[in-house]
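re: ur msg from earlier - yeah i can do the flavin-adenine dinucleotide complex, just paste it... oh wait u already did. ok heres what im feeding in:
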Amino acid sequence: MADRYDAVVVGAGPNGLTAAAHLAAAGRRVLVLERAGRVGGGTRTEDLTRPGFHHDVCATVVPLAVASPAFEGLALAGHGLEFVQPDLALAHPLDGTFAAVCDRDWSSTAATLGADAGAWRRTVGPLAAGFPSLLRELAGPLPHLPRHPGLLARFGGPGLLPATRLAGRFAAEPARALFAGLAAHSAQPLSRPLTSSFALLLAAAAHTVGWPVVRGGSQRLADALAGAVRAAGGEIETGVDVRSVAALPPARAVFLDTSPPDAARLASAVLPPARRAALERFRPGPAAFKVDYALAEPVPWSAPDAARAATVHVGGTAREIAGAERETAAGRHPDRPFVIVVQPSRFDGTRAPAGRHTLWAYCHVPNGSTVDMTGRIESQIERFAPGFRDVVLARHVLAPGDLERRNPNLRGGDLGGGDLSGRQVLPRLGLVRHPYRLAAGVYLCSASTPPGPGVHGMCGAAAARAALRRELRD
Ligand SMILES: Cc1cc2nc3c(=O)[nH]c(=O)nc-3n(C[C@H](O)[C@H](O)[C@H](O)COP(=O)(O)OP(=O)(O)OC[C@H]3O[C@@H](n4cnc5c(N)ncnc54)[C@H](O)[C@@H]3O)c2cc1C
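and the outut:
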């Protein structure tokens, strides 16, 4: 009897849904199974604090989604996806009323970087000019024959450097701090190789596609992807916690939008022992400690530009940020953490009742940490927005353990799909054979595969492509 499905996808995060959408669009019969009550994974939106305050549980700012080649051809706008651009992509307040900014409008950026404006443009400009092509180069496993070798070299050369080293190009604090904040998205000590690549990619995005949010909350992106799956004939079931691939309906290929250790557990019976052992060894990265806020009014930032950006990097100078990330990597909890703050309701009025606001803030903590960072996060925000605590109506804390309980991919609160240091860099860059294909008919498609974390669906699309070349060829 013919199998009812060509492919079963375990997990409806952005990568699982993107894999399913491409497979369904290619005419394959697809079933998606998700353990939570709703699709979305890291793009779920819930009323965490009070009714009518719509909070993104994880991702809100989605520059890589706007430009993602993986979302092309899926007609997501037709399924309700709309991006909202804030006035400024990113603001980075320093003490006093000044904030450095990074934006699509070069002149806004230059005005805040003073004498470093030229060096910033020389560093980021060529990458910004080629950003869509750069994203395409990064969309699959390396090494491959690049279509834009010059562009890749301009990214890869400086990107390999530690951020502390590349920031040496800048003479003054605004550009140094801006660069350090961008690089700190790596959740690594900024003295480590490759940390510059995060800063370069995120800055290039800010200068071209901006750092938008999704109108109505990131859930709308997940719902749009689910819409694309269903429109192409795919099926989605929620509330199904898959324990083993052996228990799945028969199919020619299984896609796991899971952590590597969970993939090893689910597919243990069919994986070659060496592959299983490698997946089990995959180390989680640092965790997020996140607080969601319902606010009575906007944050009273001292720097006016901080009110004009959806994303605000709160951490002070480059030295302070590097110190905070170093402390975290050493297993400690910095007194003054680097805090990423996002205030989507300033630009998307659908997220909160009229006149009210939503905001989230998170900092990095050691994996599995049980230390409450709420006070330290709020002290950092107060430093740049005196009176912040007075506008808080309600708060909801997501400590690392809470994040993992909601989504097992966030092991110990890991927000990046695994640690980015040591030998793990090789599989994460795709510098091993078959980063997606674990065994015949078994694929890993989560953010632990290349090109890595973020809402872009490129891991899922690349895994789907790999299977369409083999088990699902016709
Ligand atoms: C606090 C936080 C903030 C973030 N902010 C941003 C941001 O602003 N912008 C950005 O681009 N990225 C952000 N990210 C990262 C982004 O959310 C992830 O990189 C992205 O969601 C990864 O997508 P994924 O599909 O690989 O996995 P996930 O989104 O984690 O989805 C995996 C899905 O699989 C399901 N699943 C797992 N195991 C099983 C099983 N056995 N059976 C059934 N279902 C299963 C899970 O329930 C989940 O729904 C953030 C992450 C965190 C933690």
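cool cool. The longest helix spans residues 195-208. ping me if u need the other ligands too
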